[in-house]
Design a protein that fits this description.
69 residues, alpha+beta, Arc Repressor Mutant, subunit A, 3-stranded antiparallel beta sheet, 3 helices
Length: 69
């Protein structure tokens, strides 16, 4: 798969928009839906968690993410 580089701000807005449209989701589902490399998604999620826009919760061995209401 060829990945086209996009603006980080645009990518994070797209990620937030998708997270808003679902109850919660895993990184694997984000990679499949958004077609963004895992490293970029993890970096974006870390930045969004630090800015208190997204929270993560663990369930067993899985970690899920959702937008802070």
């Amino acid at each position: 798969m060829m990945y086209k580089s996009v603006n980080v701000k645009e990518r994070r807005e797209k990620l937030l928009s998708h997270l808003n449209s679902v109850h919660d989701t895993s990184v694997i589902k984000l990679i499949e839906f958004l077609k963004i490399p895992a490293k970029a998604i993890y970096n974006d999620l870390d930045a969004l968690i630090k800015s208190n826009q997204v929270i993560s919760k663990s369930w067993g061995k899985s970690k899920y993410y959702k937008v802070v209401a």
